[in-house]
Amino acid sequence: MFSIIDRYLLRETLKGLLAILTVLLLVLVGHAFVNNLQRVAAGTLASDVILELLSLEVLRVLGVLLPAAFFFSILYTLGRMYRDNEMTALASCGIGTLRIYRSLLYFVLPVTAMVAWLTFMGRPWANQAIEAIKHEQEAVANIAGAAAGRFNEFSKGDLVFYAEDLLLDKRMHNIFIQNHQHGKIGLITANEGYQYVDEKTGDRFVVLTHGHRYDGLPGRSDYRVTEFNKYAVRISQEIKKPVSLRSKARSTALLWASDNMRDQSEFQYRLAFPLAVVLFTLISIPLSRSAPRQGIYGRMFLAFLIYFTFFNLLSVSGTWMKSGITPAWMGRWWVHLFVLCMVVPLILRDCRWITSIKRRLL
Predict the structure, then answer these.
(1) Which domain holds residue 307?
(2) Which residues lie across from 184 on neighbouring strands?
(3) Crossing angle, helix 300-323 and helix 261-288, to 10 degrees?
(4) 177 has which bridge partners?
(5) Which residues pair with 159 in a beta bridge?
(6) Are 65 and 157 in a shared domain?
(7) What mean pLDDT is predicted for residues 65-75?
């Protein structure tokens, strides 16, 4: 069973983890939401897939954000305990650094397992689903994604669509359409219109009401003007080509069995985040140590520096690995060792036997 100290540390760390993770998710998901709105305004994305893309984006970035949020939640919790002299009181009761590590171990194991599942399973599945949605949006023209008050091109320019107003019920007012079919160009104007999808064939149509159709070239004898009450314009759809999955969207099992350097780099990138949880936990306790008068954040600036150094080196290591600058056996593992060597002096500084050796030498 958990002791009182274990429950206290886990509760405070969990509160900080949820708060930091929420803020990070809001920032990244908000940025993705703005980008999707820009694509909807440009007519390259349908508005009805925004929520689905945002959900997939949360699943895609959660495994990357969780190690960072866990790292800074430990720093915040232990830094506050040092400021409030709680760590001093625990030390006077015989609870040292190793005991704190043991308490955090109950939290490290499930967080590491969750990050491993998110990076090995959730992230590639989300990337695959996002690529499928983007491929479908490129292949299918959707009038619902058109912007009001501007000319929108669909079907590779064969259909030019303009609507003065697009209402919430997906009805359109004052419509102009230039349609290119069988080598002929037709112009259509209508007062109102709406989009219709045939349930049997899946074909998309723009149904226009109370308008006129103009066929041919003005001045020629075959020029025709037709008035209609209802007219449907079919939006041609491209034949879907098989999607070639990138390394980010391929399953972890395929990456493990592949000899391709890009696949191996992506596999090591996914493995880096579960290892980062353990690495950041090791260095969080010595980094959080501070005197009572130093404030709540202690060595937070140094922690930010180590965090950004780790992820920048992780990105650089992937580029070096793909280009052949670093050997294949070296891969991306050296980043963890490099960061660990940076903080070994801080970890050793907290060891009691190092402190006793210093006292004897002095």
Answers:
(1) 4-138+244-361
(2) 181
(3) 170
(4) 161, 188
(5) 154, 179
(6) no
(7) 91
